[in-house]
Amino acid sequence: xxxxxxxxxxxxxxxxRDGRISNLDLANRVGLSPSxxxxxxxxxxxxxxxxxxxxxxxxxxxxxxxxxxxxVGLSQHTKASQEGFERAIRGARQVRECHNITGTVEYxxxxxxxxxxxxxHFHTEVLGTLPQVAAITTFVVMESPKDERA
Length: 150
Description:
It contains 5 helices and 4 strands, in the order αααβαββαβ. It has 2 domains: 6-46, Arc Repressor Mutant, subunit A (Orthogonal Bundle), CATH 1.10.10; 59-140, Lrp/AsnC effector binding domain/regulation of amino acid metabolism (RAM) domain (Alpha-Beta Plaits). By secondary structure, it is an alpha+beta fold.
């Protein structure tokens, strides 16, 4: 991580692993007084370096048994085509992440659904109906030995 100083970097590393750590424990781990630590965290939040805090969910317990990364190529390389695709994807609850990327396709999606049948429905009834979509390639996640998303 790169912030404005090593203590902030240390704070950010700890919070990215454990966003629920108490200020007292965080202060002890980074070698600051609790009030100085809290001021730094509040400043990192105010500047937008820390954008929020999240719960990390167990996919199996919320009904997600199938995860795939999907590349999407658009039929037209226009701003209107991109905006139309992005608008449609914002409404697709199965899409947990959407990234506009460089390369031979325009988008990389992270799709989370219950099972293969649910993915087939998403592929056919959601992506397959969008007029902007020209190409779809699916990469099924079999295991995630490292996943630092929070």
